[in-house]
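Researcher: I need the complex structure. Ligand is nicotinamide-adenine-dinucleotide. Inputs:
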Amino acid sequence: MPASAISFQHKGASLQREVSRSMSFSTSPNDTFHGRRLSTNNSAEGTSPSLRRTGTQGTPKQLKPFREQDIKILLLENVNQTGRDILTGQGYQVEALKSSLPEDQLIEKIKDVHVLGIRSKTKLTARVLEAAKNLIVVGCFCIGTNQVDLKYAAQHGICVFNSPFSNSRSVAELIICEIISLARQITDRSNEMHRGTWNKVSAKCWEIRGKTLGIIGYGHIGSQLSVLAESMGMDVIYYDVLNLMAMGTSRQVPTLKALLERADFVSCHVPELPETMNMIGAEELDSMKTGAYLINASRGSVVDIPALIHASRTGKIGGAALDVYPSEPAGNGDYFTNDLGPWAEDLRSLKNIILTPHIGGSTEEAQSAIGIEVADALVRYVNEGVTTGAVNMPEVTLRSLTMDEPNHARVVFIHQNVPGVLRRVNEILGDHNVDKQMSDSRGDVAYLMADISNVKEKDIAELYRELEGLKDKIVTRILY
Ligand SMILES: NC(=O)c1ccc[n+]([C@@H]2O[C@H](COP(=O)([O-])OP(=O)(O)OC[C@H]3O[C@@H](n4cnc5c(N)ncnc54)[C@H](O)[C@@H]3O)[C@@H](O)[C@H]2O)c1
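Model: Output:
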């Protein structure tokens, strides 16, 4: 995707955005790209047989942290085996528990861990994080991160990663299933059969070949969907606030209205933002072709549900599929009632409406991909200090140090974002050659990474002591 910025009109407002930096990531990884850590030292014995055969020039060097000697990892909530394998393969001490822990037990358990892996049930409050004196990074092996006090974590130098895009393909495949199911009224026919009724009809049942799919939001999921839909013979148009390169023969349209007027199927794939709130309301439903279908697997706030119920009852739309709702139950059970929202029972009564409980991304493949993506991010952070993809820290990366750079060290200095810090840090680093350096800030926290050469092992303790002495320091790490 081009990293361009462009203005588009939506509901009269001019929105200017840049392609999210996360767009450069691949989605749904199915293998790790890290080498296995064979030894904690960098000697020839510690390298793989192939490295010993071919020499080590240019090979990325496996760094070891100066302070955190043996990395201790606690994984809660039955983190996928793919993630556990990557972390144990690095030689870290990994303890994996099947469930979450009550707050007091968690506080006791995480006192000395360096890395914590959780899913959505473990609440990392300021009280819990405060107890974790050695904690440098948290991996949320899930999409959401609202179970973590991200601000407190950042202010204490604890980096947090998640996996927002590993389930994109799973969502796109569900949408394809829904497009065909809506066009053939599959759920109505199936429900009738479950009630014992044989109702063979072909009226208002369609092939999808040659029909137009309109995708709103052409990001990770929207663009995957585009490819799948085209391969089934659909024409694809899309609307996005960014000017994005089309997949295959799909075409971008300049306004939401243009998309709604032309599409036989409209599928929403935008994030939850103030400007996407009720993005599909009465006016937009009215702009759609009579008998067209609406699909929403993005966020519940994107579609105005009462307006959709009205459009379904009047026959304006031919059907709809919803996977997300303005409010959703916290757990499984008989909760899809009007206690959830005044619309729930109306939705249940409509014809040709597919209702699913936020399962778009819920597949075994997505879980496995999440394990790989988050574990890879943790390894990169622990071994190299790279924060790419972090949700609460600035994104900072440097190319790897290599095996033919023996007297190099990497300095990571997380600090308060106040004037004068970089000057003081560089006075300390200045006794060595600073080969490369990058720093960035996010709110009141800044992250600096520098690779320095001509560093003897005995210098490292002194460097660490001097950096730790700076008053605006949050966390110092040296990797060598
Ligand atoms: N149902 C599920 O289980 C499930 C799973 C994963 C993601 N999601 C949801 O799907 C949605 C899309 O996810 P994604 O990973 O593709 O996101 P993404 O960030 O990759 O893509 C979103 C796209 O929407 C565009 N956009 C933003 N505001 C817009 C606007 N006002 N009008 C038009 N386009 C706009 C962005 O430019 C971007 O191209 C998100 O809301 C996410 O929460 C749901």
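Model: Summary of the prediction. Residues 364-384 form the longest helix (21 residues).
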